[in-house]
Amino acid sequence: MNFLRAVTRIAFLCAFLGAIAGCAHSMVISPDISKIVVPAGAVPIKKNVGYYLAETNRSAEVTTPGGGGDKVTYHPYRDTETAFYKMLSNVFASVTLMKDPADSEVIKRDNLSFVLTPQIATTSKSSSGLTWPPTDFTVALTCDVVDANGKTISTYAVTGEGKAEFSQFKSDFSLSGKLASEDALLKMQEIFLAAPELRK
User: Fold this and answer.
1) Average pLDDT of the chain?
2) Distance (Å, rounded) from C-alpha 15 to C-alpha 199?
3) Class for domain 24-198, per CATH?
4) What one-character-per-residue DSSP string does 162-181 give?
5) Strand partners of residue 143
6) What is the per-residue pLDDT for 158?
């Protein structure tokens, strides 16, 4: 009996502390890969590219506000990498994942014209005081692009936005994050396709 009372007290204390500090709920912000498509009439760039994603970024966990005083946690780089690769494949002739962005052997072997390094920053918030999933989410995606010799071509930046109300996210608590990721990737794809410096 004493043991059960102790367990009950501990559980109550944890719940009380959680109510004060706010809980952190896990999300996955991977967008729907089937929606990362090339727009009708778009002309792909007939060049090979590599992209570099540091392991520290790939494994990084981010915590941002949710609703009801709670927080949400997710892995922005890991969650979006597959869709990022798909987007690059839509734009360029071939895509190589690089372990070192300055690896001259890989650049020469795969005849890479450019090497891209993405950076992601996220924000979230909620208009709800009762449910934890965020109703508003942003994904700021930046891509630094250098040529085969390491010369900077340009830095491209977009911000994707995702919004979801309770009636929408009740079956998918990560919906606003997924929509923001999708929006950011499609905006970046549009910028790449329209960039004359990437076609020279």
Assistant:
1) 91
2) 57
3) alpha beta
4) EE--HHHHTT-TTHHHHHHH
5) 118, 156
6) 98
